[in-house]
Amino acid sequence: MKSKVLNAILLVTWLSPFELFALPEMVIGEATINPGIYLTFEGAIKDDVAPLGVFLAENETDVHIEMLAHWSEDAPKGSVPGGYVAYLQVELLVKNESTDTSIAVQLAPHVNLSDNLHYAQNIKLPGKIDDKYTLKFIIKPPMNGSLGLHYDWREGVGEKFTPGGNFTFEGLDFSKIAKTTRR
Which residues of 60-90 are buried (b: 16+ CB within 10 A; e: fewer)? Predict the structure, then answer.
């Protein structure tokens, strides 16, 4: 009995640093694009992303927008289900529904301990944090020349890595996420 209690205490003590991973995230939406790429769009708590000067500082950010791109079970042969899909070009248009003010940003590859590799960007919302927003994600294939497509891919899947896609989500309220901090 003592060993079970001791093991439980050790487990809780060991897991306590991982409380960071339990921070709230707002799932904006999910989609799939060819060939078998599963996308999850999220609004997350602003974060300290290095290198500073390249990414918006945490204290200047309202929300951290993310897109997770993973191979699905329907992906082409050789793709690892759940594996990160690299080289996508991801543009984000953020529109304030009250003022029609908008911004455009590029999501860049990021890595952390909770999502691992993903596309993201710290952003300053174009308005008040409690306004409603429309987000449009524009996913494009890799930049020409940045990814070589072997003969077997071109014959089995196609001449493009992916056709990409556009996904729009309206009426988004980021106030809860924007008022939360990580540290």
Answer: ebbbbbbbbbbbbeebeeebeeeebbeebeb
